[in-house]
Amino acid sequence: MEVQTLTYIFVTGSFGLYIGIAIWSRAASTDEFYVAGGGVHPIANGMATAADWMSAASFISMAGIIAFMGYDGTVYLMGWTGGYVLLALLLAPYLRKFGEFTVPDFIGARYYSNGARVVAVICLIVVSFTYVAGQMRGVGIVFSQFLNVPILWGVIIGMAVVFFYAVLGGMKGITYTQVAQYCVLIFAYLVPAIFISLLITDIPIPQFGLGAEVNDGSGLTVLEKLDRTLVELGFGPYTDGSKDMIDVFAITLALMIGTAGLPHVIVRFFTVPSVSDARLSAGYALFFIALLYTTAPAVGAFARLNFIDTIHDTAYQEVDPWFKRWEDIGLVSWVDKNGDGKIQYAPGAAFIGSPSFDDDRGPRGERVVINERNDNTNEVYVDRDIMVLANPEIAALPGWVIALVAAGGLAAALSTAAGLLLVISASVSHDLLKKTLARGISEREELFYARIAAATAIVIAGYLGINPPGFVAQVVAFAFGLAAASLFPAILLGIFSKSTTKEGAISGMLVGLVGTFCYIAYFKFVAPESNNADHWWFGISPEGIGAVGAALNFATALIVSRFSGPVPASVTAMVDTIRIPAGVEKPHDH
Amino acid sequence: MTDDDNDGGRAKAYWRSNIRLMSVLLVIWFTVSFGFGILLVEPLNRIPFFGFKTGFWWAQQGSIYVFIILIFVYARLMKRLDRKYGVDDDEA
Question: Are A419 and A47 in contact (CB under 8 A)?
């Protein structure tokens, strides 16, 4: 059967499954809509959290980023897993004991102030929309590349599916579809990884294959061969970094505390039955995440080796068909600078910017790129995102594996999008309406508004996916930096320091939020030409500044709290209660 | 919790034990990730480890395995602590 037919079957089949689950698990009350009734088994919640967390970026982009960054890719691997330790030890159990519906709920109650609640809602909405736009875009890309559906229709189909199960099912529907989506995405990730590991090292487990000898008789291990090949081509060795140590440190820290502060991840721990289940569930979540995250560095290294092997010094006319297929959609391209008809791969960008193509074909049949050439010997442009998507083709794997990858990419994007849309809708209907603007609405009305908010959020997300603001890729730094600098310190202090006052928390959040926002905005938008280590504070890039923002938030909150207060006795009593697991309630209606 | 002195004292002792356990685990968390994976990566890289450079392995594999173990260890030891102090969530 053709790859395209198989892809249609896999994608339609998986969508049918998600919709079926949504119908079976419709939400009937607000606590089912917001937190799935608080009765999700910790292992199921672990899987759902893993799917929620692993986005189109984890599935499609991460291995490609590692392939081209080598050691520096570590910031994502440790940064996006280490946060779960913080979450499990410092936040999840206590927030579960608190037992309400949303993150702003906790901030509002602990800091006895609707002002604090509204600041938290703003942080949450900025962070979540930044993220969700990227997911819808990912859906569009997978549709257009595997199914020849225009991006517009791809996004609309994705919106319709998410609409169906998020609006109908709420958290309950989302939880059980996410369990299914985790299974689809992890299978789709591991199968090609195992194939490729076998192909290169004869060892089926990619985590071990990465340290094994290449089976080409050279006696070199994968990483030795990669280091040697790259150095021969003029790159730095794969296993050494090129970023400054302080920047690697700051980015890793910012991603870790950003992860622990992301509202759509935190609320997943509101859905388990008890405090000890919340701790355990974080462990399962990280286990399920680590299956992908420890495989990704292997996939990245194999892909880089394969990529160099198949294209470097190969005549364009003889290159593997995958190269031409991805050239047709503009994600790889070749400019024959020395006119020898062969593809040469070397450090540096072959030309300025991403490729713009002429309608004509060049002398060897390649697409003609009109960008201004850079003065180096590199002739290849490659979009990092293709490494995972094209890997099965590059390694000549069977058609069903390629079809599987398409279904996996969609599962990753849809599960994350749904989780994000839910926290947006909950914070609007619950925190803004029920708790602030329209107190006293009934549960039915609140549920109705929650569905309207979810539907509206989907439409906005879809619009952003179809017309992505040019800066989507750049604003990812915002999502983590802002979550790290605003929400995480406020929640942590709320649990561990009884003397933090509302003045302290609000000023801390604002200092963290505004400081981080300005630093990122300055280097990304105001003065992008000075975005380099010479101008950064202490050599910390905008990606890592969230760590500094969090430190500023802590410092401000602690100092201001000394000069304000006292914290009402009812609030310190509440802190005492959430520190003790006994007496946990199912999220109640109020 | 009630205002009972005994209960208050017990809650304090429970919280202190929790903080102590947490601090130990967080020191390990920091050592394997920021320590082995970043600050000490260069000296560790001079030592080979099953086909990897040791520092590189900690950064891209080892630290993640330790993270998982840390969470499960915390969950288990806390359960024990919860029972010892009678604040377990199983008790209705």
Answer: no
